[in-house]
């Protein structure tokens, strides 16, 4: 029988360091989360390095790792030791010239429950991800684990209701969004509140529209690794919300933290029974959604 209740966690961290130090740091934080009762634990996007997409530099491809190498080995052993599910977002080297922004979903026995490759790739000032990442080709997936059904999307995916919908329709009880999002320091005063508010509101909307739990794991800290540039101030504010968009746990903008909340599948079923959005979908009228524009 599946678990009717289980605890999930997101870990909010400053990751402006090298791969070896970030790995050690994240292992320690996952241990801490597990000691507090967390059963499914997510790290932020691209956990092993600073956010290198602030520039287009071929040297940064050296930060990537092949499948099932350093990150998988370390967190597979940790998941098995602790008996927890771990979501590990990493920079994947698939082959020469093809790289992905990916995430392992590692089950409690250390095996791979799933692999997700980021589908939506942004190209904005200081977020030059199209230079590095090939769009994902594995689609939107539910990953059954020994704790529950886990859907994993990544950062820019969080703006797309279609991604959340398809993942939920495949059976995901929780949508995890490992994230690296922040303010351009010179824009923060004028645009910052609205940018942060939109980010949070759109994911709360996915929770409501799909009757799912949503968990976003962001970075914190100013990452200014390029000289003579303002860098990015990652805004933290990681959160977990329930299937009506209700906030279950909320982090600060500037502290390293662990957020833990309970996934209650009886509550989820009750919400879906009373707000039957899936029942009332007019799938016969949605064909045009696959068009780029309806001219």
From TrEMBL:
All residue ranges annotated as the CN hydrolase domain in the record: 6-265
Species this chain originates from: Flavobacterium plantiphilum
Taxonomic lineage: Bacteria, Pseudomonadati, Bacteroidota, Flavobacteriia, Flavobacteriales
CDD domains cross-referenced by the UniProt entry: CPA
InterPro entries associated with the record: Aliph_Amidase/BUP, C-N_Hydrolase, C-N_Hydrolase_sf
Pfam family, one: CN_hydrolase
Keyword annotations from UniProtKB, A to Z: Hydrolase
Gene Ontology MF term list: hydrolase activity
Protein name: Carbon-nitrogen hydrolase
């Amino acid at each position: 029988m599946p678990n009717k209740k289980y605890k999930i966690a997101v870990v909010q961290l400053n990751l402006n360091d090298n791969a070896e130090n970030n790995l050690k740091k994240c292992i320690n934080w996952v241990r801490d989360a597990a000691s507090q009762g967390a059963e499914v634990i997510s790290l932020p996007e691209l956990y092993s390095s600073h956010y290198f997409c602030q520039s287009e530099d071929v040297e940064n491809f050296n930060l990537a790792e092949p499948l099932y190498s350093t990150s998988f080995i370390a967190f597979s052993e940790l998941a098995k030791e602790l008996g927890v599910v771990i979501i590990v977002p990493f920079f994947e080297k698939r082959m020469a010239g093809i790289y992905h922004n990916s995430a392992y979903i590692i089950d409690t026995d250390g095996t791979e429950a799933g692999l997700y490759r980021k589908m939506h790739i942004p190209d904005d000032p200081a977020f030059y991800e199209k230079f590095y990442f090939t769009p994902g080709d594995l689609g939107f997936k539910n990953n059954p684990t020994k704790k529950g059904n886990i859907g994993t999307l990544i950062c820019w995916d969080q703006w797309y209701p279609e991604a959340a919908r398809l993942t939920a329709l495949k059976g995901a009880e929780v949508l995890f969004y490992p994230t690296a999002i922040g303010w351009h320091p010179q824009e923060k005063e004028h645009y910052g509140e609205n940018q942060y508010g939109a980010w949070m509101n759109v994911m709360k909307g996915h929770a409501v529209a799909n009757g799912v739990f949503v968990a976003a794991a962001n970075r914190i800290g100013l990452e200014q690794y390029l000289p003579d540039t303002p860098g990015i101030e990652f805004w933290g504010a990681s959160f977990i919300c329930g299937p009506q968009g209700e906030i279950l746990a909320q982090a600060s903008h500037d502290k390293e933290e662990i957020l833990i909340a309970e996934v209650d599948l009886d509550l989820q079923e009750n919400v879906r029974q009373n707000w039957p959005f899936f029942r009332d979908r007019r799938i016969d009228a949605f064909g045009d959604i696959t068009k780029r524009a309806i001219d």
